[in-house]
Design goal:
The protein contains ten helices and seven strands. Strands 4-3-7-6-5 form a five-stranded antiparallel beta sheet, sandwiched between helices. A hairpin with a 2-residue loop joins β3 and β4. The longest helix is centred in the C-terminal third of the chain and has 26 residues. The radius of gyration is 20 Å and the shape is globular. The protein starts with 10 loop residues before the first helix and ends with a helix. The relative contact order is 0.11. InterPro entries: ArsR-like_HTH, GAF-like_dom_sf, HTH_MetabolicPath_Reg, Tscrpt_reg_IclR_C, Tscrpt_reg_IclR_N, WH-like_DNA-bd_sf, WH_DNA-bd_sf. Keywords: DNA-binding, Transcription, Transcription regulation. Pfam families: HTH_IclR, IclR_C. This is IclR family transcriptional regulator.
């Protein structure tokens, strides 16, 4: 059953979407590998792949298939027309420039982190790591500063539903893996107005994040700044960085409400 259709779906479209998702995870695959992964006959898998190729969503080279360039066009269109991206784009760029670190804009998608935009400042580290993570499955919310900032603005039952569905992956020794401990952390985040990830996603990286909330109280996303723990000491995190991140989130909120005509 599809996630958001209420049970109604077109089988052939569902199969094509499953093939696309598989190719995203696998990077490339043969017809036989696609057929086995999606539980199709090789002939049926070939027909679906050929149709996707006709529309530019799949390309073939040396006997293997991978996602096609049409997704670049679609991705740019979706992002450029996203109100959250438009509202926060300049703030993310400014954060990266003024802090010299990595700045990120995220939203929640299917219970995980979806990165809408990232900018790397002059002193930023881990650009290759962030690029690799974008190619993997969507990141968990509970172990990133932006993710925790976003979770802190969700109803308790929604947080628990996300944890129930996605789990609480143990990334480092500092990762929160207990639900009650997470609720306590989210309470602290609400009290101070920003979240801190203390080497919870990756050893050696700390981050500060703040939520972006619409005028109706709905959380639209979050933004954050991350950098090496050697530069992200408590004084800088609770001082300069928290101030800049919260201010950027506030500006993004004003821009977002203006975009929405509120």
């Amino acid at each position: 059953m599809s996630r958001e259709s209420g049970g109604r779906k077109i089988q052939s479209v569902d199969v094509s979407c499953t093939i696309i998702e598989y190719l995203r995870r696998a990077n490339e695959a043969t017809v036989s590998e696609v057929a086995e992964a999606v539980d199709l006959s090789p002939g049926s898998a070939h027909t679906h792949l050929a149709t996707l190729m006709d529309h530019g969503y799949v390309r073939k080279a040396d006997g293997t298939y991978r996602l096609g360039p049409e997704f670049l066009t679609l991705g740019e269109h979706v992002r450029n027309n996203d109100v959250l991206y438009r509202a926060a784009k300049e703030e993310i760029e400014d954060l990266a420039e003024t802090t010299g670190e990595s700045a990120h804009l995220i939203m929640e998608h299917r219970g995980r982190v979806l990165v809408l935009y990232e900018v790397f400042g002059d002193d930023a580290v881990g650009e290759r790591y962030h690029a690799r993570k974008r190619e993997e499955s969507l990141r968990h919310l509970h172990c990133t500063a932006s993710g925790k900032a976003l979770l802190a603005e969700l109803p308790r039952d929604r947080v628990e539903a996300i944890v129930d569905e996605q789990g609480m992956e143990h990334r480092t020794e500092n990762t929160i893996t207990d639900l009650e401990e997470l609720h306590e952390e989210l309470g602290r985040i609400r009290d101070r107005g920003f979240a801190i990830a203390d080497e919870e996603q990756m050893v050696g990286i700390r981050a500060v994040g703040a939520p972006i909330v619409c005028s109706d109280g709905r959380v639209a996303g979050a933004l954050s700044v991350s950098g090496p723990a050697s530069r992200m000491d408590d004084g800088r995190i609770h001082g300069e960085l928290a101030e800049r991140v919260v201010r950027a989130a506030n500006v993004a909120e004003v821009n977002l409400n203006t975009e929405r005509g509120v």
